[in-house]
Design a protein that fits this description.
The chain has two domains: 5-65 and 143-325, QueA-like, CATH 3.40.1780; 69-137, QueA-like (Thrombin, subunit H, Beta Barrel), CATH 2.40.10.240. It contains six helices and 17 strands. It has helices spanning 152-157, 180-184, 222-230, 239-248, 288-297, 299-311; strands at residues 29-34, 39-44, 56-61, 63-65, 69-71, 78-86, 89-95, 105-108, 111-118, 124-128, 165-168, 188-193, 216-220, 233-237, 258-262, 277-281, 322-325. It has a nine-stranded mixed beta sheet with strand order 2-1-17-16-14-3-12-13-15. It has a six-stranded antiparallel beta sheet with strand order 5-6-7-10-9-8, with no helix packed on it. A hairpin with a 4-residue loop joins β1 (29-34) and β2. The two termini are 20 Å apart. The model has no long low-confidence stretch (mean pLDDT 94).
Length: 326
């Protein structure tokens, strides 16, 4: 595929956008793509172990989603809390933006938030009149294509069973299919990348080379690095894991324990040096996530697979089904 934005588009019937998770995580459908044979199979996620080889290592993102959605006391402004910058200072997104221009204020639990700065990306830096933890009363930040408010079920289901390190404002959704039982049967390790809104922002440049990703914080422990370096094949669970591992590669071919920021943007013809297999959900048209998967599998094959998924009525996006790319 080219670097033209229009090459990463497809039409999806709205009824295929999953609004709720399945009753049991492991019951998700799993489309299996073989890159060498250019074949498509239809399996269930609980069959994952049968498709792997001895020496394969799953690498999963153990970030934990923060309860980052809040509303003003009068219900007119929605806040997505991105980061606590200091005792009384927060970075957030607001909706509608016209209500929170520079100097404007709103209240959450009777605490005043005033806009101190508006960044080039439209984020608001707000200062509070007292030091409180806004996450304490927050709800899960479901993506906009889930057309409902989050509820009690989402507190556990929009979170992986292995979520450990708080910091994300969106779930690493490929990990949502795992149960403790399924995970216990497959060799694995964890890295951390705190998923931010930049991963999901639309690409507006017609030429992909002009798009810039927001930086996201990641961490790879010494134990995880050693396991990755010793594995026969690396099975990345999700695009966030891919971005972390490919950001951390060294000329020696080894992964080092490290912490840092990555703004890597993966699109064709990117050359993967760490990841051998990829487990991923189905992604939005024209998204950076779709572009990453296109680089891994080949754009024409991927779009053929998406057409097949639509024909077979797969469930799409965060609470949807998944694909394993061999």
């Amino acid at each position: 595929m080219s670097v033209a934005l229009s090459d990463y588009d497809y039409d999806l019937p709205r009824e295929l956008i999953a609004q709720r998770p399945l009753e049991r995580r492991g019951d998700s459908r799993m489309m299996v793509l073989d890159r060498d044979a250019q074949t498509i199979e239809h399996r269930r996620f609980r069959e994952l172990k049968r498709l792997l080889h001895p020496g394969d290592l799953l690498v999963l993102n153990d970030t934990r989603v923060l309860p980052a959605r809040r509303f003003s006391d009068d219900g007119t402004v929605e806040f997505l809390l991105l980061e606590r910058l200091g005792p009384r200072q927060w970075k957030c997104l607001v909706k509608p933006g016209r209500k929170m221009l520079l100097g404007a204020s709103a209240k959450i639990d009777d605490v005043i938030l005033q806009v101190e700065q508006i960044t080039a990306d439209g984020e608001r830096i707000v200062v509070l009149d007292e030091d409180v933890d806004l996450y304490a009363g927050g709800s899960m930040p479901l993506p906009p294509y889930i057309g409902r408010a989050s509820d009690e079920e989402d507190k556990t289901r929009y979170q992986t069973v292995f979520a450990q390190t708080p910091g994300a404002v969106a779930a690493p959704t490929a990990g949502l299919h795992f149960t403790p039982e399924i995970l216990s049967e497959i060799p694995h390790t964890f890295i951390t990348l705190h998923v931010g809104t930049g991963t999901f922002l639309p690409v507006r440049s017609r030429n992909l080379a002009e798009h810039r990703m927001h930086a996201e914080r990641f961490s790879i422990s010494a134990e995880a690095a050693a396991k990755v370096n010793d594995a026969s094949r690396i099975v990345a669970v999700g695009t966030t894991t891919v971005r972390t591992l490919e950001s951390a590669k060294r000329a020696s071919g080894k992964i080092l324990a490290q912490e840092g920021l990555t703004d890597i943007f993966i699109y064709p013809p990117f050359r993967f040096q760490v990841v051998d297999l990829l487990l991923t959900n189905f992604h939005l048209p024209r998204s950076t996530l779709l572009m990453l998967v296109s680089a891994f599998v080949g754009g024409k094959f991927l779009l053929r697979a998406y057409r097949e998924a639509i024909r077979k009525r797969y469930r799409f996006y965060s609470y949807g089904d998944c694909m394993l790319i061999l």
